[in-house]
Amino acid sequence: MKHEYGDIRLYGIGDSMNDLPLIDASDVSYTFPYAPKEVQERVTKVVPTIVEALEDSMREEV
Asked: Are 30 and 12 in contact (CB under 8 A)?
């Protein structure tokens, strides 16, 4: 379940099963093509690099 923190939008980046709680709690979440399939299915976006995840998060309109 996602939580709201006022005007703060929670972003998460993870690539393994132990990251699933963070991914599930995030408003927007990212992982990479090498992550397990279950992780890829639970995130908002699969991106090739962490740089792309960070750039995407800065482009996103709130």
From this structure: yes
Spell out where 1-62 has E strands. Answer: 11-13, 28-31, 45-46
Task: Let me know: does 10 contact 27? Beta carbons within 8 Å.
Answer: yes
Two structure tokens written together for 26: 């995030």
Q: Is the pLDDT of residue 1 over 50?
A: no
Instruction: In whole angstroms, give the CA distance from residue 51 to residue 62.
Output: 20
Q: What is the pTM of this model?
A: 0.85
Domain chopping of the chain, boundaries: 11-59
Report the C-alpha dihedral over residues 49, 50, 54, 57, rounded to 10 degrees. 70
Cα 27 → chain centroid: 8
Compute the distance between CA of residue 38 and CA of residue 30 in angstroms, rounded to an integer.
13
